Amino acid sequence: MEKSELSSHFDVIIVGAGWSGLLACKYCLSEGLKTLVLESRDSIGGIWAYSNDQTLGGVMKSTETMSSRCITEISDFPMPITYPDFPSHQQILAYLKLYCANFHLEEHIRLGCNVIKVKKIGTMWEITCEDGSAYLANSVVVCSGVHRYPNDVSRHQRFSQYTGKILHSAAIKEISADYAGKTVIIWGGGESASDIALEASRVAVRVYWCIPNGQWFAPKVVGGWPPFPSSRRKVADHISSRLRLILSPTHRYSPFISQYFEYTFGVNGHGQEAWRTEAPYSRSFLNKSRNVLSRLKSGHVIPKRDLHHCEGDTVFFTDGSCAKAEFIITCSGYRASFPFFEEPTILAADPRTWYKHIFYNDDPTLALVGFARPVFGSIPGISELQSRYISLVLAGKRYLPPPNQRARIIDKDVAFWNHHFRYTSLRLGGLVDHFRYCDELATLIGCRPRLWKLLFSSPRKWWKAISSPWNGCQFWLNDESQHERVFQTLDSYRDNQMSEVYIFLLLAPALPLIGLYSYVRILLKEHLFHKNTRPAHPRNTGWRSAKHAPNVVRPAKANPAGARVAETRPIGPVV
Ligand SMILES: Cc1cc2nc3c(=O)[nH]c(=O)nc-3n(C[C@H](O)[C@H](O)[C@H](O)COP(=O)(O)OP(=O)(O)OC[C@H]3O[C@@H](n4cnc5c(N)ncnc54)[C@H](O)[C@@H]3O)c2cc1C
Ligand SMILES: NC(=O)c1ccc[n+]([C@@H]2O[C@H](COP(=O)([O-])OP(=O)(O)OC[C@H]3O[C@@H](n4cnc5c(N)ncnc54)[C@H](OP(=O)(O)O)[C@@H]3O)[C@@H](O)[C@H]2O)c1
Q1: Which of 86, 285, 539 should be mutated for ligand 2, with most atoms under 8 A from CB?
Q2: How many CA atoms does the CB half-sphere of 468 hold within 13 Å?
Q3: Tell me, which fold does domain 150-236+269-333 have in CATH?
Q4: Which stretches does DSSP call E strand in 325-479?
Q5: Rounded mean pLDDT of the chain?
Q6: Using CA of residue 174, residue 285, residue 372, residue 90, what is the dihedral sign?
Q7: Three-state secondary structure along 376-406?
Q8: CA distance 402 to 194
Q9: CA angle 54-59-62, nearest 5°?
Q10: Cα dihedral angle (105, 108, 114, 118), rounded to 10 degrees?
């Protein structure tokens, strides 16, 4: 595209050519909108385009997806059949490049264009890049990524007296030989922490892993679902069929699964008291990177709750023990930030306070895609529906409710999600239940599958639709002309059918009861025993009003006096 052409006026300008930006671009183009994507890096793909640059974050050399290809892939562009259930980051980047080529997106993307200012002048948006180029657009779609700016906790008082090296997980691309023979503290309970702890445990002499708020773990794959017949390993996120969601009216997830995880793997799916969380299954983020747990059994990784304070290179844990450590790696996640906006309210924006986690404030010409994060599911799956919705709104085919009504809906949604995730720190503003949120978006788009209609027109198709794992292609079911490709995709993921039949025939009456049992247990705990289960730490973004703010929370338990020195028997590096 020529520079003169780029400097002209666009219907939509998209900031960022990661997975979300590409989806937004494709759907805006398909609505006939003149679209331009501005990307600061020299590649598309966002976090999936590996870089040695430690300031960029993104994938490590060894990263593969945590969400399965079924739940992650683009609805009208399935991943190549040669791909494994959990593709590597190189495969994902190659897939996104294929997507661009297939839908001719390259000609609408400008690489090496770092957006530094986005400003509304009258009814138009002016977008300025670092190289001095400027563009005008009717609408702006921000797809700059929810995992770009590290949530830096290194200045927290627990770490303030530490004299060793302290790094954020975003700077870790691999655990190099520099860590050999060293002691490493990993702090945080997400998947970055899991991946780094696993690698560190193979090189370092000892790894202590602190999860201050506790954590649920779920496997990516299981050998089979006893007592169901199984011939090959099962992908855990394939338990997401509508059938299972329907059968679980109290929790909107298959209650049997949480009981199964706790029975098989111990409390919260990991069996470590130090990492216990009171949050019910699926009501806080689920860590799917479980391989590291075998390193706990072998003693290479030692579970701890939290770090109380540091003195020099000695860290004091809240259980009263201490250890000398050369490195602390804070895997404390990321925070949404938009430095290119001048308005301070947007700089510290909270996705909960945008209409359906997408439209900011009272301005329907500013949308943000990719900032909702599921406890279980995939960000790209959500971004696709968000992109479909915004493209229709920007093309004038769907209308947002009037401002007053929108504000009421936002307040209701904030209250709902804060209540739904009340057992968490509420740090993640965009945390949602993937299945519920996607259905809400589908309703707004008008593509929520009409399953009753399908049942009467074709019971066989209906059964396939409700018993297949979640895949974005289900949101094309209302259009019969798409059925051939939709059912082709669903057929490729129907490896778990016997268990679906068993569930339907044998367990259906029991599942809601198990769900109800969990629900009553929580209710009694909260209301009869008044157990405060919210974990500790302040959230870091602005709230619309005080009524939505999380309660003040209990501080971490500490016993610094008389701290015991932790086990010092070295465990040799393992190849
Ligand atoms: C290590 C890791 C593994 C992950 N694994 C999974 C997984 O298995 N499944 C899953 O669902 N999610 C996973 N995620 C979440 C991941 O964020 C999403 O999968 C997805 O990549 C989000 O895409 P995005 O386009 O919203 O954001 P990003 O991939 O972050 O892309 C944002 C793009 O915007 C560009 N940009 C930002 N600011 C500007 C600016 N000012 N000007 C121009 N361009 C700008 C960036 O350069 C980048 O290219 C993972 C995240 C990490 C960090
Ligand atoms: N292989 C993969 O596919 C892979 C690998 C890495 C990451 N990822 C993805 O990348 C994203 C980011 O993962 P992440 O692990 O970097 O971040 P994360 O999931 O946000 O986890 C951050 C952890 O730090 C804790 N934390 C943060 N601030 C805290 C505070 N002030 N006090 C106490 N605890 C605090 C959090 O606890 P609370 O939650 O209780 O606040 C949480 O345990 C996720 O979407 C993840 O799925 C995927």
Answers
A1: 285
A2: 22
A3: FAD/NAD(P)-binding domain (3.50.50)
A4: 327-330, 334-335, 366-368, 373-374, 431-432
A5: 87
A6: positive
A7: CCCHHHHHHHHHHHHHHHHCCCCCCCCHHHH
A8: 44
A9: 110
A10: -120
What integer is the mean pLDDT of 467-472? 94
Count Cβ neighbours within 10 Å for each residue of 153-164 and write b for 16 or more, e otherwise.
bbeeebbeebeb
pLDDT tens digits along 258-289:
777 888 899 999 999 999 998 888 889 999 99
- Does the pLDDT at position 249 exceed 70? no
In terms of average pLDDT, the best of 32-46, 346-360, 546-560 is: 32-46
| pLDDT for residue 555 | 30
Cβ(215)–Cβ(287) under 8 Å?
yes
Neighbours of 504 (CB within 10 A): 15
- Distance separating alpha carbons of residues 495 and 232, to the nearest angstrom: 9
The answer to whether 345 and 542 have CB atoms below 8 angstroms apart is: yes
Residue 114 Cα: closest atom of ligand 1: 42
Element (H, E) at 37: strand 35-38
Instruction: Report domain extents, the chain.
Output: 3-149+335-440, 150-236+269-333
- Are 18 and 43 contacting, i.e. CB atoms less than 8 angstroms apart? no
How many whole angstroms from 19 Cα to the centroid of ligand 1?
7
Question: What is 3-149+335-440's CATH number, 3.60.21.10, 3.50.50.60, 3.30.390.50, 3.40.190.10?
Answer: 3.50.50.60
**Residue count (the chain):** 575
Q: Which residues line ligand 1 (CB under 6 A)?
A: 15-21, 38-41, 46-48, 58-59, 63, 65-67, 72, 114-115, 143-145, 147-148, 340, 370, 378-380, 383
Q: Where are the beta strands (DSSP E) in 182-338?
A: 183-187, 206-210, 216-217, 221-222, 234-235, 286-287, 301-304, 307-311, 314-317, 321-324, 327-330, 334-335
Look up the pTM and report it: 0.91
d(CA 14, ligand 1 centre) in Å: 14
Distance 148 CA to ligand 1 centre (A): 7
Using the predicted structure, report yes or no on whether residue 320 has a pLDDT greater than 50: yes
The label of the residue with tokens 């394939």 reads 238
**pLDDT the model gives residue 433:** 93
